[in-house]
Design brief:
This protein is α+β, with helices and mostly antiparallel strands. The chain has eight helices and eight strands.
Length: about 190
């Protein structure tokens, strides 16, 4: 076969033992150089320009053609990594159900690992003994009714859940009642400045 005929007709050669052969790739050669390749997704033989590059393969090309890869990527974007349509992902469990489920899971883990929980609490209390004492004293006063917990944040006036912030742990009943956002922001400012 002369050179002109070789450019018109592809000659199939048996695959050498390579990682590409084990994946089912079939290369079509013209006089020793790769010119076409079979897509393992659609089964069509296409020019090598129709395949994206991939360093780790024997021939330096992906096994799927560009068209099949684009279709796969579109489906991934449309359906997500779990194969769930976006509609289903939007209709996930409500946050309160997830919160209850996580609380139950945490409670079960703590019941199964009491020694690890006790070790953590012991370490935390030992490192923050004054804070722990101030927190417990304040809790007892709130539960007994001596101190009333307000409904709104004293900083931003947001209603909802509020937390006690101690300026000085030696005076445990002198607190500012802050929402979580303001409380975190206050502590971050203190650590930076």
């Amino acid at each position: 076969m002369d050179r002109q005929t070789a450019t018109v007709e592809a000659i199939e050669r048996p695959q050498p033992a390579s990682p590409c052969a084990s994946l089912g790739c079939r290369l079509i050669y013209w006089s020793g150089a790769v010119d076409s390749k079979e897509c393992t997704a659609c089964g069509q033989v296409k020019p090598v320009g129709e395949f994206y590059k991939q360093r780790g393969t024997a021939d330096g090309l992906r096994n799927w053609c560009k068209e099949c890869m684009r279709g796969y990527q579109r489906a991934y974007v449309r359906n997500g990594p779990l194969g769930l349509p976006r509609r289903a992902r939007k209709n996930r469990l409500p946050p309160d159900v997830v919160k209850e489920r996580n609380a139950a899971r945490t409670k079960a883990w703590r019941a199964a690992h009491p020694d690890r929980v006790a070790a953590w609490h012991g370490k935390h209390r030992g490192a923050n003994e004054e804070q722990t004492r101030a927190g417990w004293k304040l809790r007892r006063c709130v539960v007994s009714g001596q101190i009333r917990k307000p409904a709104a944040c004293s900083s931003c006036e947001t209603t909802g859940s509020v937390e006690a912030h101690h300026e000085d742990y030696s005076r445990p009943l002198e607190v500012s009642w802050l929402c979580r956002k303001c409380h975190v922001a206050l502590h971050q400012m203190r650590h930076v400045g």
